[in-house]
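Dear support,

Our group has been running a series of protein-ligand predictions, and this particular one with magnesium ion is the one our PI (initials K.S.) wants archived with full inputs and outputs. We had some confusion internally about which version of the output was final, so please treat the block below as the authoritative record. The input we submitted was:
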Amino acid sequence: MGGWKLLSQFSKEISLAVNLVKKASEITEWFKKKGVKTYIKKDQSPATVADYSSQIYILNQLKENFPEDHVIAEENETGLIDDNSANQIRECFNHLDIANISDFKDLLNYRGQRSTRQWTIDPIDGTKGFMKGLKYAIGIGLMVNSDTKISVISVPEYNENVLAIFVAEQGQGAKASYGGKNFESIHVSNQNNLKKARLAQSLHYDLPWVTQFADKIGIEERIKMDSMAKFCLVADGSYDLYIKPIMGYRAFTWDYSPGDLLVKEAGGKVTDLDEERLVFKDEKCILRAPGIITSNGVLHDEVAVFIRNKFFSI
Ligand SMILES: [Mg+2]
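Confirmed final output from the archive:
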């Protein structure tokens, strides 16, 4: 007889979300090989037809499987889906045997019902990196009253360039699957020497104080990368620290809620520079101080105090 297996309250949601990020990764990789046209959105950030296709696919599935739930999703500018893009999306879906999706614009803007259950979708996180053939991620979270219950992240070319999928559930820990292998529990590192810490930084959205911090401490091992894949690096112990400046205190749930839960469930810590935990309110990630520190927990306070004292005056 088999052993006891704890049945998760969210097992149906987790297994759907894992399938969604897997298939969405096939969509984005298909476009990556084809090449994509870039749009500049009203907020001046870039999006591609791959961002749109991934979101359309994910929302179609959520609509079918959880029609009562609310959705918070990044992309909403349907004007960017012209005939040419629509043809490309069709070609991609045909190629990947994704049937019965035709109402692209309606689906892109599908947001479900008013509900305490809120799915957060980032169809491509790290679009700038994606456009250059660099690292990016796809992130799905499920919040209940803005409290993150599950998160699922795929990174199509993670360490050693294999597809990695990360799953976390509140109170139940974090796990990962690399290159199609079985899911195994993951845990943050136990590095307690800040000088020897390995630091992940943002590639396209960094500010000089992060590098100055690393220089002052003498941190040698650094990586620059786009997307929430950096939360994954800390969660599975590949790196010990990730420091992210936030410009204008403006941050969105879909960017931070999946990584926040993943790192916490892997034993690490995520806070703003004031060491306050991240607070989500519907689509907003509310920050008191203009930066996010993600760490293995052991290094957290030392890093936060150093940054506050050296770079910010209260
Ligand atoms: Mg995005």
